[in-house]
Automatic annotation (TrEMBL):
Source species, domain of life: Bacteria
Family annotation (PROSITE patterns): RHODANESE_3
Name by which UniProt lists this protein: NADPH-dependent 2,4-dienoyl-CoA reductase/sulfur reductase-like enzyme
GO molecular function, one term: oxidoreductase activity
Entry keyword rRNA-binding: no
Keyword Hydrolase: no
Family membership noted in the UniProt record: Belongs to the class-III pyridine nucleotide-disulfide oxidoreductase family.
Cofactor: FAD
């Protein structure tokens, strides 16, 4: 049997390697139009920023490796120009010699990946304008920086690549301005968490221009829709990617609702013996009703392995994703998993939100705060999604949450997790435990939380309420929630008589714990409607500093 794979990055090489492990007499050929194969695309920004010394570290495997270890023939610099599905033939062009030839297959894997999605802007084809998708792109950017020594750069977009390039260009002493067309940064976070992250970046003197688009690029300037002109010796277009499906469409491969290739759980397309995997396919989300397009290296490797197994008669089947992702930005780590708040509401869940600000380990071991937004379903109690912004320990927690969501955990189960504890690694009650406790209190124990956004909505509607700041007086006068009165925790029992038990009441402290303690006291004294402000004053100040409602 003859297998042809189109594409030799994560998915294509994984499919071929797994097929070989299953069937040693299989004839396997891979065609790749570029020169680099099986590379770490996620590491490319760090090569540009010189944190990774050599790009060879990101491209450790060449065709000779696959030939020697797997007896797989990989032809780089070979473009598959067409597919004859009925005759099971491919037309291939050797880009070095312009020779065109035909090869035959019994089974075909399409792993054509994704391509940069560039907006139709005048000047995006200039020599100092770059996108970053391949090692060739990275080499070109690095060569430009080394030769031209740019002083100012504009990055368009605040996705993973945009922010990773921000960090690495600034490490080279290049002044950077971020331009974002949306009214919030980073698409993988809800608005409140994006605002929280933005507040941290502003403290680092990062210039971010939201609701702004580039209208034209000149040799050393970028024109904006606002009429402003930015100096720019180089421009990075981090405007996202789209699935590379043109070749697949020519033979009638069905696309899904996202515009990527539709596959079953074996990675087989609507055409028999034609499989697809990696960044050119859409995947099913375990919590959403519709397919999603989430091009990540981890998913590409997984779907490639499943394709290679299935086409050789194996039993591997794709079970779906929950959209877990993580990236580094200076000393910060940003991660998410599961549904965000907007997605959860769209799916019809009765959403309960908590914001939990806790250190990853004790202060005496250098612990630093992380902010965890958790999303759960009021009806079932199931955890639906989590977003984290922090410095240390974010990766550990997001993986715990991803596992919990995958297996349908309810919020009351989080507290009972037997997580590893020692002071160098965690607090006695881990931030995961605290998130579970907050949500369990809200859903099952009559201890509701109120988000900063919903508090602003209540205030805008002039709903009568009493807001109690439970912190020390000096903290209250430094920064507080609008309309709050200051009753420190130690004095609350003496002041209860001055409060209205039947008036909706919101308690808060710096981050939530003391506010919850006062909430409990008030409820025990007959108050009928008491909420604790989610994330406390810290989250309120970071996300609602302008006190303006946002959609």
């Amino acid at each position: 049997m003859k297998l042809i794979v189109i594409g030799a990055v994560a998915a294509g090489t994984s499919a071929a390697a797994k097929a070989r492990r299953n069937q040693d007499d299989l004839d396997i050929v891979i065609y790749e139009k570029d020169q680099d194969i099986s590379y770490s695309g996620c590491g490319l920004p760090y090569f540009i920023g010189e944190e990774v010394e050599s790009i060879d570290q990101l491209t450790p495997r060449n065709p000779a490796f696959f030939k020697k270890k797997y007896n797989i023939d990989i032809h780089t610099g070979h473009l598959v120009m067409g597919i004859n599905y009925q005759e099971k033939k491919v037309s291939v062009k050797n880009l070095a010699t312009d020779e065109v030839f035909t090869d035959t297959f019994d089974k075909l894997v399409i792993a054509t990946g994704a391509k940069t999605s560039l907006p139709p802007i005048e000047g995006v084809d200039l020599s100092h304008v770059f996108s970053l998708r391949t090692p060739a792109n990275a080499r070109r950017i690095k060569a430009f920086i080394d030769h031209e020594q740019p002083k100012e750069a504009v990055i368009v977009g605040t996705g993973f690549i945009g922010f990773e390039m921000l960090e690495n260009l600034m490490a080279l002493d290049i002044k950077v301005t971020i331009v974002e067309m949306m009214d919030k940064i980073t698409p993988n976070l809800d608005r409140d968490m994006a605002d929280y992250l933005e507040a941290l970046l502003i403290k680092k003197k990062i210039t971010i221009m939201k609701e702004t688009t580039v209208t034209k690029v000149d040799n050393h300037q970028v024109a904006l829709n606002t009429g402003e002109v930015l100096n720019a010796d180089m421009v990075i277009m981090a405007t996202g990617v789209k699935p590379n499906v043109d070749l697949a469409q020519t033979i009638g491969v069905e696309l899904g609702t996202t515009g990527a290739i539709k596959v079953d759980n074996k990675m087989e397309t609507n055409l028999s013996d034609v499989y697809a995997c990696g960044d050119c396919i859409e995947t099913n989300h375990l919590l959403a009703q519709d397919a999603v397009y989430r091009p990540l290296g981890s998913t590409a490797n997984k779907t490639g392995r499943i394709a290679g197994d299935a086409l050789t008669g194996g039993s591997l089947r794709f079970k779906g994703i929950i959209g877990t992702s993580i990236y580094k930005l200076f000393d910060l780590t940003i991660a998410n998993t599961g549904l965000n708040e907007r997605e959860a509401r769209r799916e019809g869940y009765d959403v309960v939100i908590s914001h939990n600000i806790k250190p990853d380990k004790p202060a005496y071991f250098g612990g630093t705060e992380m902010c965890i937004k958790s999303i759960a379903d009021q009806t079932s109690g199931k955890l639906l999604g989590v977003q984290i912004v922090g410095r240390e320990g974010v990766d550990k927690r997001i993986d715990i949450f991803a596992t919990l969501i995958t297996y349908g955990a309810t919020v009351d189960e989080l507290f009972h997790l037997d997580l590893a504890y020692a002071p160098p690694f965690s607090t006695t009650k881990d931030p995961v435990h605290y998130s579970g406790m907050i949500l369990d209190n809200a859903i099952n124990k009559g201890r509701p939380v109120k988000t900063a956004q919903s508090l602003l909505e209540d205030q805008k509607d002039e709903r009568p309420m009493q807001i109690i700041d439970t912190r020390a007086e000096e903290q209250f006068y430094k920064a507080c929630v609008d309309g709050a009165i200051n009753i420190p925790h130690a004095l609350i029992r003496d002041k209860i008589k001055d409060l209205d038990k039947h008036l909706p009441t919101v308690t808060y402290c710096n981050s939530g714990t003391t506010g919850n303690a006062v909430q409990n006291i008030l409820l025990n004294h007959g108050f009928t409607n008491v909420s604790n402000l989610s994330g406390g004053n810290k989250f309120y100040q970071a996300t609602c500093k302008n006190k303006q409602l946002k959609d």
